[in-house]
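idk why but the lab printer keeps eating my pages so im just putting this in chat instead. protein + 2'-deoxycytidine-5'-monophosphate:
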Amino acid sequence: MAKTYSIAIDGPAGAGKSTIAKRLAKELGYKYVDTGAIYRTVAYFLDLLGVSPKDVDGVERYIDELTVVIEYDDDGVQHMIMNGMDVSGEIRTQDISQKASLVSAHAVVREVLLDMQRDVAKSYNVIMDGRDIGTVVLPNADVKIFLTASAEVRAKRRTDELLAKGQTADYETVLKEIVQRDYQDTHRPIAPLKMAKESVKVDTSDMDIEQVVQTIREIVGKKIPL
Ligand code: DC
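predcted complex ->
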């Protein structure tokens, strides 16, 4: 099989991972894999069943009844298919963000999703974003980036994003949720959010999107023939 390249972008919620990864994937002709969307789909599925994201037994009992498929439309946009239903829109709420963070702490959930993520990288050149891509999912990724920003900047960006989508969002609430999610994602025992040894850290607090894209492009260009 021909060599495939992989770029891992990890970091906390709202650091700009998906915006940057989408842009770069388009430029490079890579597949963009948003792994957070997979955890969100699991959280949404359990939520519909009324299973609490903290309920270990409930999660273990129902996870086998879920089939998650990632599909891409003609524009390369990722769609999440939950037992045959496209739930790409439904998973983008603040409520599901929190529940996905809690659900993702369960060993059984992480195990079920691991091969699925690795399989995509075996077949395609990928830019994959998440929390544990460089540390666990693709430890041999050609490029590892840790994208971060202050919690305040991330909360402001997330608030603007939600408002732009017509959802209600209040900065203070979003900030509180981001701080809580950071804590949960970095303190869970399995595959917590942390910087991989070989990662290049990029703090985007004082950068606009163009500057971030340019910075990441340079980092990638040193490791992968573009
Ligand atoms: O990137 P996101 O905000 O869509 O992710 C939602 C949650 O999913 C996040 O708070 C933690 C979890 N997640 C994870 O545990 N591992 C990943 N690779 C991606 C997301």
